[in-house]
Amino acid sequence: MKKLGRVLFYLLWPFVWFYAPLRIRVRAIILVKGKILLVKNWFGPAYWQLPGGGLELTEQPVDAIIREIKEELSIIIKPTQVKHLTQGPIIINKKGLLYRYRIVLIKLKSFPEISMSRELTQYKWEPINSTSLPSELAHINTSL
Predict the structure, then answer these.
(1) Tens digit of each residue's pLDDT (9 = 90 or more) over 86-131
(2) pTM surpassing 0.90?
(3) Structural domains of the chain, with CATH
């Protein structure tokens, strides 16, 4: 399934290249005891990223991240747990594609039980001081 996602991604590259900059996505820094949750999506170039996804039409970022986290990881988040880290979308260039992201912070007291959807292939908890964190974190001007 992992390889199929990568093959489809590159076969659909012209469509993805056109569509990716148009849609705003929201990504969550889910922080527990000094570790950040990272995921790998089945569709795409298989790199570690923050969990999240695209905003649906008229959807607010908080509602979108709550929906995405529940759909992808089966974690229930309350709106009061979500803190905005970016005022508006930030533009990030990832391997030739431009993405528009809203980044939010969700601090949890304990590691949640995770049940991944078929959209994801892996997850891991990475220390906050790791050198292999996703590029989106370089755009955050606050300490976590």
Answers:
(1) 888 877 777 677 777 899 999 999 999 999 999 899 999 999 888 8
(2) no
(3) 2-139 (3.90.79.10)
Cα of first residue to Cα of last residue in the chain, in angstroms, is: 34
Per-residue pLDDT band at 138 (split at 50, 70, 90): confident
**Comparing C-alpha atoms, which of 84, 65, 85 is closest to residue 140?**
85
Q: Which residues are CB-contacts of 60 (< 8 A; sequence separation ≥ 6)? A: none
pLDDT band at 32 (very low <50, low <70, confident <90, very high): very high
- In 3D, which of 43, 23, 35, 50 has the Cα closest to residue 136? 50
Strand partners, 49: 39
| Cβ(50)–Cβ(134) below 8 Å | yes
Q: Let me know: does 37 contact 130? Beta carbons within 8 Å.
A: no
